[in-house]
Design goal:
mainly alpha, 206 residues, globular, 3% strand, single chain, two-stranded antiparallel ribbon, 5 helices, binds protoporphyrin IX containing FE
């Protein structure tokens, strides 16, 4: 298995970062909306604690992913992609990176500003700032609004990948998927997208 990317395809490390972070983020969005609706209870406390740990984990993984992205070559877009599709994909990827950093960072800043501890599965993380209710409130607003925009961007991103797979019939999606899963991944991803959007709507919109 090739670790590095080349001009045609993603290597195993880029795939590992992509799918691990994607799964964590989808889970964190749903758990985040679920836990804020709970009454105070031990379950709520546990979910907050796990939410923070997995959120901090995402931040470290995204840091490593960016370093790897800077070091490793990026596969080129397919020649059949229109100019607007390339531009839209680029803008969406940039926004996804902004949100992948902005979500955990705003969560961490919100907790620090509120005087709450942050740990990575028991390993204490430093407070990023001192207690500050004003900043805490701002970060809480950002952390509450960004998931809606992020979900819209993820939906657009996944629909784009599925369009290239089912309509353009090129390898855009396949080159991000490990070889043995290439044939079963696309229908599973359609299911994941629909399932995620349904739960998201139930928890966050209604
Ligand atoms: C990619 C990472 C993250 C995602 C996608 C995410 C997502 C969410 C979502 C969707 C909510 C519900 C928002 C609402 O309805 O107000 C939420 C709440 C929350 N998140 Fe995160 N989160 C992430 C990382 C973090 C981190 C790193 C921390 C802290 C270290 C954190 C702390 C919190 C807290 C304390 C709440 C509850 C806020 C409240 O009670 O009003 N999150 N998160
Ligand atoms: C679960 C469904 C998802 C599918 C089917 C999917 C599919 C893909 C595909 C096919 C590519 C390669 C595009 C190309 O080569 O032009 C890609 C790249 C990318 N995806 Fe996703 N993705 C998903 C979820 C996510 C999520 C949740 C995020 C982040 C929040 C994300 C962030 C990115 C980024 C930033 C890239 C650009 C390449 C890189 O920097 O690694 N994806 N995705």
């Amino acid at each position: 298995m090739m670790i590095n990317n080349d001009k045609d395809t993603y290597g195993s490390l880029a795939k590992f970062f992509h799918w691990t972070i994607a799964a964590l983020i989808l889970g964190l969005i749903l758990v985040g909306f679920y836990m804020v609706g709970l009454e105070r209870s031990p379950l709520r406390g546990d979910l907050y604690s796990y939410h923070k740990s997995f959120g901090v984990l995402v931040l470290w993984l995204v840091g490593l992913r960016i370093l790897w992205r800077l070091y490793s070559q990026q596969p080129e877009p397919h020649e059949n992609h229109q100019k607007w599709e390339r531009l839209l994909a680029k803008v969406t990827h940039i926004f996804l990176y902004v949100a992948m950093i902005g979500m955990p960072l705003s969560g961490w800043l919100m907790s620090s500003a509120g005087g709450y501890p942050v740990s990575l599965f028991g390993l204490e993380m430093p407070s990023l700032i001192g207690k500050n209710p004003e900043i805490g409130k701002r970060m809480n607003q950002i952390h509450g609004i960004l998931p809606y925009i992020l979900t819209g961007a993820i939906a657009l991103h996944v629909i784009g990948a599925l369009k290239h797979h089912y309509m353009d019939r090129d390898s855009t999606l396949k080159r991000m998927v490990a070889f043995p899963l290439r044939n079963i991944a696309p229908p599973i991803l359609v299911f994941v997208l629909v399932f995620f959007l349904m739960i998201f709507a139930a928890l966050a919109v209604f």
